[in-house]
Structure formats: C-alpha cells, structure tokens
Known about the structure:
The structure holds two protein chains of two kinds. Chain A is of the alpha/beta class. Chain A has two domains: 10-170, P-loop containing nucleotide triphosphate hydrolases (Rossmann fold), CATH 3.40.50.300; 219-306, Orthogonal Bundle (Helicase, Ruva Protein, domain 3). Chain A is built from 14 helices and eleven strands. Chain A has helices at 17-28, 45-54, 70-74, 79-85, 94-97, 113-125, 158-163, 176-191, 193-199, 201-217, 225-238, 244-259, 267-277, 294-306; strands at residues 35-39, 61-63, 76-77, 90-91, 102-105, 127-132, 135-140, 144-149, 166-170, 222-223, 264-265. In chain A, strand 6 and strand 7 (135-140) form a beta hairpin. In chain A, helix 8 crosses helix 9 and helix 11 packs across helix 12. By secondary structure, chain B is an alpha/beta fold. Among the domains of chain B are: 9-199, P-loop containing nucleotide triphosphate hydrolases (Rossmann fold, 3-Layer(aba) Sandwich); 364-371 and 447-631, 3-Layer(aba) Sandwich (Rossmann fold); 394-445, no CATH class. Helices cover 44% and strands 15% of the residues of chain B. In chain B, the strands form six sheets. Chain B has a six-stranded mixed sheet, with helices on both faces. A five-stranded parallel sheet of chain B has the order 2-5-8-1-9. In chain B, strand 17 (549-556), helix 22 (569-583) and strand 18 form a beta-alpha-beta unit. The chains are: A alpha/beta, B alpha/beta.
Amino acid sequence: MNCKQTIYPFTALVGQERMQEALILNVINPALGGVLIRGEKGTAKSTAVRALADLFSSLEVVDLPISATEDQVVGSLNMEQAIKTGEKTFEPGLLAKAHKQMLYIDEINLLDDHLVDVLLDAAAMGVNTVEREGISHSHPAEFVLVGTMNPEEGDLRPQLLDRFALSVEVRGEQNPQARVEVVKRRLAFERDPESFARQYQDAQQSLRENILYAKSIVRDVTAADDLLETAAKISIKLEVDGHRADLMMIKTALTLAAFAGRTSAVKSDLSRAAALVLPHRLRRTPFEDYKQDWSDVEQLIYEECAV
Amino acid sequence: MKRQANYPFSAIVGQEQLKMALIISSVNPKTGGVLIVGERGTAKSTAVRALADVMEHTAMIQLPLNVTEEMVAGTVKLDQAIKSGTRVLEEGLLSKADGQILYIDEVNLLSDNITKLILDAAATGIHRVEREGISCVRPSRFTLIGTMNPEEGLLSPQISDRFGLCVTVNGEKHVAVRVAILKKRLTYEKDRQQFCFAYMEETNRLREKIQRAQERLPKVTVSEELMTLCVRIALEANCAGHRADIFLLEAAKAIAAFNERLEVTEADIREAAPYVIAHRMRERPDVESEPVTDRPENNHRQEEAAEEPETTNEREAGQLQHQPQEDGMTTGEMPPDDMETDSEEKQRAAAQDTVAEIGEQLQLTSMFAASKDRRSRAGNGKRSKTRSGTKQGRFIKAAPMPAGKITDIALMATIRAAAPYQKSRREDGRAIVITDADLRKKVREKRIGNTLLFVVDASGSMGAQQRMRAVKGAIVSLLHDAYQKRDSVGMVAFRNDDAELLLDMTRSVDLAHKALRELPTGGKTPLACGLSAGFRRLQKMRKQEPESLPMMIVVTDGKANAGMYGGDPVKEALTIARQIAASGLPSLIIDIETGFIQLGIAKLLAKTMNAEYYKLDELKADTIVQAVRSMSSPSF
Lengths: 307, 636
C-alpha cells in the first residue's frame, strides 16, 4: 500500500502567481521571514504550501492548529520519563519540529494572543526558550512562517504582521477560462492522482532545479547602493515603522534576482519586492482601515524605481 | 559557547540614546534598568543582545513570555526530594539573575503575576521564596532591561516607574543613515562570524571603557549644588516620589565615569535627565505625552486630577485648531441643535461634522484606586472560574487540584508535591507514588477577558449641549478599566445612513482612545444600523472565541430617524433589539436623552433588548464601570 498520499503538483496550480512566487522565495531563502496569505476560503492556499514542500523531500510542513495549547507549541515536560524515572526531560513541541521547516498556521488571525506572543519570541530570535514546569531549555527554531487569514474574520496584531516578510492577497480566479482550467485539473487529479502527477514530472523537476540553483547563488547576489537608497526612500515616504521594511525589500529583491538566475538585483526586482513587502506594513490609523491607496503606493514605487 | 554571533554593539548605526542608556545602566546598575520603547523593527532587541556580548562578566538571563511562576520564583529540587525526602530549593530565575542582566522582551505582554514578582525583587534587591514548604530569602539584584512596543498595550505607571531609565526609539528618517543600516545588516547576514570579527577591536575597546568606568564610579563625586539641581529637575517635572532624584543622580555619575571624569558636571545631569525624567513626567500641557509616560489618569492624587480636564482640553484645542473648520465654529461652542428638524440637519450634516473633546474624567482617581483594590482580592479567582473547563490560555502556575474532576494536570508540580514523601511511600515497586492530595492543576491565564463593543450614536443630536463630551468622558473611564483588565474593546459609530466599525476589537486602549477623540458627530440617527453592526460583530466574536465574554454597550439618545430597510426607524431598531435579547448577548444602554420633552425610546429599547439601562445624567463614571463589571461576571 502506498501510504504517502500523492500531492497536487505545484506546477499544476493555475493563477495565484504572487502567492506562488512568495512561497518559492521563502524556500530559496528561508531567512527571508515567511509569508502571510490573505484571502477567501478555497483559494488553494493550503494546497500551494503543501505542494511546494512536496518538491523537496527534506522540506516538511508543520501544522500549527489554532486550537494548539502552549505546551504543544513550545514543548513541555516529558510525562512518561517524569513518571517512570522522576527525571525531567524536555519533550519538544511544534516549534522544535518546525526547525528548518515550514510552520503553517491556517487562520493565524484567530490564534490566541498568548500563542502569538511565544511565536513572535521564537520567530524573532530563531531560538525557542522554554522556562516552564521545571524545565529550562532552549533550542534553535528557525522556520519559514506561513500564515493564512481571512481578513474579514479579524485583524492580525501589527507586531505579528510585521514579522512576516511578505504578504500576498489571493482572490478566486476572475477569468472564466482560468476558472474552468482550475476545475478541470482538479477533477483530473482526483480521478487519478498518480498519472496526473506524472504529467507534471518534468515541470516539477525543472522548478526544483531552478530553486536549487537559486538557493546556491542567493548568498552571492549583490545590490548596488542606489538600490538600497531607493528602498530607504520608499520606506521613508510611506512612513512605515522601523527598518524592517527596507531590509525585507532588499532581501526579497536579492532572492528574486537569484530566482531569475542573476547575481545582482535590479530595480525591477525591487519594485516586485516592494509589492510583496509593503502592503501589510503601511501605517494605519483606526479610521483609515487600509485606505491608504495601494495605487498611489504603486505609483511611488514605480517612480522611485524608474529613476 | 556562543551559539550564534550576535550583531555587534558598535555596529549599530544611529540610536545613540538607546546605546547610551544601555551603557549607563551597565556602568552603574543602581540606575535601575532600562525600558526601551519603540515601534517594531528599530533594533531594540538587537541592541540588548549586543550589550550582553560587550559585558564580559555579566550574563544575560532572558525571561521568555512562556515562563511559569515557579521557574521565576524557584521551587523544590526534584531529585533530592525523591531520593532523600528533603526539600531543597531549586533556584528560580530571580536568584539566577542576581548580579546579572534580566532581559524581558515585550515586557508589556508578560503575565501580571509574574511581572509583580519581578518588580518586588527589583525594588528590594532580595527575593523571598515561600512555597511548597520552602521558606528562604535569596539575593536578587539585577539590571532589568525590558523592551516594549506601545501598540501592544501599555505598562502601568507602577511598572514603568521601576525602570530607572527609559528611551524611545524610532526609525531613522534620513536616507543615508537608512542605507548605512541596510548595508551593515546585509553584510552581517552574509557572514556573521566575519562581520563580528571586523568589529572585535571596537567591541573590546568599548568593553574596557565600560570596565574602567565601573572602577571609577565609586570615586565619582557630586557637589551639593548639583544634587539640588537633580532634585529641582525632578520636582519641575512633577515626578512622583523620590525615585527620579536618585536615578538621575546615579545616571549622571555613570555618565561622568564613562567620560573618564571623577566629578559630575551640570552637563552630565542634563544629559541624564531625558532618560530618567521622560517617562515619569506628569501633566505638562506643553509636552505631548510620550507613549509610556504615565497615563495621567491612573495614579494621581485628587487635586492633580482636578486639574486634568483643563490640560486635556488645552491640548485638544491645540490640535483641533489645525483641522479645517468650514464654518469657523470651534468645538467648544456647539449650538444646541437639539430640537432641530430633519431637513436642516441633513443640510448641515456634511458641512458641520464636529469633534467633541473628551469630557469629564474627574472621578477616575478614586475609582481606579478602588477598582485596583477589588481586583487584587478577586484576582485570579474570577479569571480561572471563567476559564474552567478549557486548556486554553497561558499556564502561569500550578495550584492544588480541587476535589472532584481531574483535568489539566500540572505534572511537574504534582510530582514535586509528591516527591518528599516518596521514601515513605515507595513499597510496591512503582517509581513514584502519587496520591490525590499531590495532584496539582495548571492555573491558566487568558489575556482576553471581556470584549466590550461600544456602539456609539454619533448623530447630530448628540453633538448638542456638549453631550458628546460627557459621553466620551464616560467611555474613556470604561476604556481605562478595560485596559487594566486586559479586555479588548471595539467601537461602532452610527450616523447619517450608516454604521461604521471605527475600531475593530483591539487591546490597545490607546487606539480606542484615539478613535474616540477623533469621533466626529453630525447627521441623522440610524439606530438600527448601529445595533445591527454591533450585533453582527459580536456574534462573529462569539463564534470565533467561544470563551470570550462579549458585551455591547450602546450609547444613544434613542431618537432614531434613519432606517435600515426604509421602514420606521424606531421599529427597526426594536426588531434588532429583540434579536439581541433572543441571542442572550449581554448589553447595556446608556441613555443620553435630555431636555424638556423626553421620548424614552432608549428606555424602551433597553427593555426590549434585555439590557441594563442607565441614564447618563444620573451616572457617574464609576457607576458605569461597576455596571459593566457586574455584567461581565462569570454567570454570563
């Protein structure tokens, strides 16, 4: 019996290019800092994440259900050991499992506050420090945070929002032809997953190779000074908090360049990076709920990047 | 045993104040630690971690947010207890932090109980252990460093006052500086070891300079005259107590020592003052309050509080002058348009939206003193009661298991309780024998307590006779209570033809305060829309978080004159009120109808909605708070 379920091939996904790109960038450069996917239900968010991880045998998707308890997330005392021998040992939690993997949180905006706190702690440092139940322990926890949320169901705390390097908005495909294609492929996949997957073998292989190549050169990609300057200017003009936006824009641009097989980032990389980095970082007042017009922002990015 | 090369202290670009504050506190631990306040992504944590690398003999003890009480306070050493049946103290973080730096990231998110433990130790320099049959005193002198983002909720003044120094950090505004920051960070991330190596010399130099300053510090002298200056500065800033004077003096000494001098100069004191004074300064109308500055309403003596509304108004007025006022009318003199007809109102609606300032908060002082008292007595009892039956929430400490059902066992605490008796119990070969009396359960704290949604009538009739001002005052008093209880609040305002969710559920009272301050009034009264919007939001909340205790607080005069579906506005409102009553959603109506002829619609609405009913005129702020509190009792 084949116990490994066949997963929908990443390359068979239709549309949602931004989301696909954002996910790929995080695989190329896990230090980038995750992606937040906002959008309605049934827009292949979860499928895409799993499909991407399936490209690499070493990559796993660790689910953090919103019903998880803090013990399950940060880890706790190993009960069995404690009862049998009276010894205190650390029972790793989801954060330990997620080390070097993708941590996937569906509906992250519904996650309990205190879980968000510990998550932020770990995401910020790449280390999970546990001080509970007689256990003092710390272990590395570097993970690619992938969260999804439906904005209608409530907002995410700004602090957590800021932790995500990238954010993308997904919407159901609007183009009727593309919609038909989505359904067709899905039906074909459900009828016979294995032969469906076989059709995409080549495409999968070439994507895999592309990503691996990009991974190998991403550390060597450089950005010229004027690119850094442009990023800084955009941040200042948009009055985003802190410096993370600049850094994320540049790092994303570098990763984009690597994915394109180049060793230096150019303005077009930056403008695409800005579109992924900025939407969730714009300053909001309680009154203007995201009303800062995105088209103005795009105009600004375009102008800054055109020079 | 460095696990990772931290970003070097000397490679941090800009943020001079932040760096200086950290240096001051490491030269002279008597300066009472540093509170770093700032928006996200401004190198707060980076700087602190970098400091730990500079300090050679001082370790950085980090207190993670997931910490449980016994880890902070210390507890029975397990193996010893099992083997020999004796109770020996296993040191807690407070003992371990003695002589070291205790670092709390996001200190404003830490559980209240634990914050209290830490502050007690910080204040006294000792730490008393009284638990599980152990009773002893341990030294616990540490430099407390905390970071916080004010967006996440504020620290109470009692807590921020404990921090000797406070710095507010902001992002750099200059392109060149930002580029420099970017470059360094990118180089660092490319090769951490190499980057740190390049800064090694500079780091060493700084380390030596700090060490020399530490040695020089005991010899640094301060003239009588300058001591007087310290006191005067503190007095002028109206700081509470004497802490500011002392911290100021110590900080100035540290600065002198760091600058290789043996005598404190006036410049040293001036340099030290912002770090010490800014977060302690109280009500100076000309100074826009800092994010952490004492919220003036919270802990004032009566006579100071009496001055309060005036200062607020002055500030308010100052801000409002910048807003375009088409008809030149200032907010203070809104016309009594109470009896105005509909059509007139409609015409003026667009042009004459006004913003009323926040009114009366006089009672807050006594009210908060009282409420705090009550809270500490009711304390966890209420919380855990509300939360019983779930395993959600942060595990903060263990408590004996109540008789009856056994759930959510705090295993380690249970074993620990059983440990001392193992020698006598061990008979049947089991490793550990646990009896019912040993069982401990987890006490969990969930920060979201109640969810208060304000549904505020912002129609033109509310703008009349400064009623909005009074309403705002009442709401603010509720907001402050909500802040302390860590409730989440939201606000729906209805006017003209629509209701708008001005502020979705948030714990940031600051945001709510801001939303309230800027709440414009004018136009018709679509009461049904408002009720329906509020109801929908809370129903969603109830689904998402079945444990939450949502409550709707409606503030209106009941004079509905705009419908939702084109029917009779009042009837529509009553229909929704019936739905709300049927759903069992707790609600409260504050009736602000005044005047000669009163229609009493709000009262009818309250009856239909099964809501508590209060008239604003008869209501003091503390009564409202009381009312809300009684409604949020666990019976709901």
